[in-house]
Amino acid sequence: MNEEQAMDRAVMLAMAARPHPNPRVGCVLLDADGTVVGEGFHEKAGEAHAERIALDSAKGPVHTAVVTLEPCTHHGRTPPCTEALIEAGVKRVAIGSVDPDDRVSGSGIKVLEEAGIEVAVVGPDIGDIDPGYAHHRRTGRPRVLLKLAATLDGQTATASGESRWITGEQARLAAHRLRAQSDAVVVGMGTVLADNPRLDVRIEGFIGPQPRPVVISGTRPMPADHSMVDPLIYAPSDGRSEVDLSDVLIDLGGRGYLNVMVEGGPTLAAAIWKAGLVDDVVVFLAGRIAGGVGKPMLAGVFGSLSEARDVHISGASLVGKDLMVKGSVI
Predict the structure, then answer these.
(1) Rounded to 5 degrees, what are φ and ψ at 65?
(2) What pLDDT does residue 91 have?
(3) What pLDDT, on a 0 to 100 scale, did the predictor assign at position 237?
(4) Full set of structural domains in the chain with CATH
(5) What pLDDT, in 10s, does the model give residues 164-177?
(6) Tens of pLDDT along 249-261?
(7) How many Å apart are CA 166 and CA 171, to the nearest integer?
């Protein structure tokens, strides 16, 4: 196996877990002939890192370590991976990208090179493997996905607020898959009062971590009979009438929630969109037409074309009878 093939395998291993607030990392070890002698991935924060798991599994001498992210140098809940690689007598380390975390960012490469180990940065970037981690380390806030659903003529609910169900079963399953990729799911108090959502992942066979339910409550109290497990509630403070959504995201990032999905409703969706805090969008368009005016996907007035923001559409696919459109904000 050459290094490019080993990196492909390491990426696949890294994607097997979501160890936030730590990054996804995979590692493949090769001997001098290019034979795989060990591999591993970081499964959960506080547990062994990918490099140490791979080294512990090694079935022979290690010449090259192929790892998706620069090995760490700091003592956290686990010891530095650079130490393990040096102690194992590794001769070369091929890394996907430099770690954007200020505690590492180049220091891992420096330590390895000072120990006489050859280091090469070969890609892919950590942003391709773990966008939430990369975004948080570079901006200080989580990566935000705004999920919207509406009829073909843009109605997300009836005038009275009825929305179950605008989309079909397959679209709702796809939405649960998005939740499964998220560390936290955010809604406004209007959605809580109208739908009493659970905000959890309900997919048969799912055993991954559940996202943390988050409610932007405004001035209305949380109902005592809500269906969420351990929701995180943000209410206005210091005499304000509204919650500062930028502060909310910074706090969520500090709690280790790096992939955040906003599910609405229209008032929250509009507020976080107009604040410029959305990074990605997924819009489900139901195969039906409402035929009248109910509730829009985003509340408020569209007063000028200059207010619109461009979205790079990265994909569109049928999910059952509905259409799922994915994009990133430009």
Answers:
(1) -105, 125
(2) 98
(3) 83
(4) 3-134 (3.40.140.10), 140-329 (3.40.430.10)
(5) 889 999 999 999 99
(6) 999 999 999 999 9
(7) 10
Task: Provide mean pLDDT across the span 22-28.
Answer: 97
CA distance 159 to 165: 14
Q: Identify the CA nearest to 265 among candidates 157, 141, 152, 136.
A: 157
Active site residue 70: no
What's the pLDDT band for 319 if we cut at 50, 70, 90? very high
3-state secondary structure of 20: coil
User: Which residue, chain included where needed, has tokens 């070369």?
Assistant: 92
CB 141 within 8 A of CB 253: yes
The Cα–Cα gap between 257 and 210 comes to 12
One DSSP character per residue, 51-114 reads HHHHHHH--S---EEEEEEPPP-S-SSS--HHHHHHHTT--EEEEEE---STTTTTHHHHHHHH
User: Mapping DSSP to helix (H, G, I), strand (E, B) and coil, where does residue 164 land?
Assistant: coil
Give the active site residue among 3, 43, 47, 51.
51
Tally of CB atoms within 10 A around 306: 6
Number of Cβ within a 10 Å radius of residue 301: 7
